[in-house]
Amino acid sequence: MGNARGVEIRESGIRLSFAHRGERIRRTLLVEGKAIAPTPANIKYAIRLLAEIKLKIRAGNFVMREYFPEGGTVAAGTTVAHQLDHWLSVKVAENSTLAGYLSAIKFWKPFIGEKQVSALKHSDILRAIKTRPDLSGKTVNNYVSALRSAMDLAVLDKLLTENPVAAVPSAKWQREPPDPFDREEVEQIIDYARANFAPTVANLIAFRFFSGLRTSEMVALRWHSIDWNKKRFRNPFWVPMLKALGIRYRPPNHMRHTYATMLLMAGATPAYAAKQMGHSAEMFLSVYSKWLDDGQGDIEQAKLESFIGQNSPGTPLKKQRSR
């Protein structure tokens, strides 16, 4: 590939040449202090970069330090893949959160990993998201959040002047509402498991119904439990059992919801129930508030009347209400 106008290809590097404010500027493209190799991909990048610089010069908004903050270092030469890896290397996260970050990076790299961060466009991100309509809104938001955070770091490190991910809209998603089993269904499921499967299956189901553990807290996989062809966990007990009992199917995680609603219907305070579930009280109420009443209105009103009657110096509340 020959020299393009203003792009000078050397044996071990690439140099840009352009006029700015009556002066001829020549800058060798560097990444982390080293000249970038004159590969076809880097040459194409240099041509695009020079075109971008000239466009800004004509518009009157070219700022030298944004492209050459250290005299010759073109920070924009960093690829998205490199920036994601760098961001992850300095990010402090719990193991569970780290797994989510790794999943996000794995998603982005095939689509935009080879792009220079300075060339990343809003439309590139939207195009990548559009290729995976199977992803839930929550997953898309998690992936975008990780990319946005990585580009925020690029801005702080002066690699970019603005974050190209900042304006990417959040995908719409709705949390799956709780769909607990009623007490009769719980007993049927446990009895069926006890009669038709190994004792450990019934014990596991009963323990989960009455402990409220999360799926991640409960699962202890074995190799034979994974269907490598369909890429999912084999479930030889749950689906056949509900089908045999004629009980509407719900995923096993609704056993956790069942425990939460049983706590409320048994009279546990929301604060105690939230603590059992590992939620904040606000989070717990936002998910399970519809089960708080459950026909207990008269009982709760009686509690209030009793409290007021015992603590008020005047006439009992019931007599006041009958006037």
Walk me through this protein's architecture.
There is one protein chain. This protein is mainly alpha-helical and 323 residues long. The chain folds into 3 domains: 3-66, no CATH class; 80-157, DNA polymerase, domain 1 (Orthogonal Bundle), CATH 1.10.150; 175-307, no CATH class. Helices cover 52% and strands 7% of the residues. Strands 1-2-3 form a 3-stranded antiparallel sheet, covered by helices on one side. It has a two-stranded antiparallel sheet with strand order 4-5. Helix 3 packs antiparallel against helix 4, helix 7 packs antiparallel against helix 8 (199-209) and helix 12 crosses helix 13 (281-288). It is elongated.
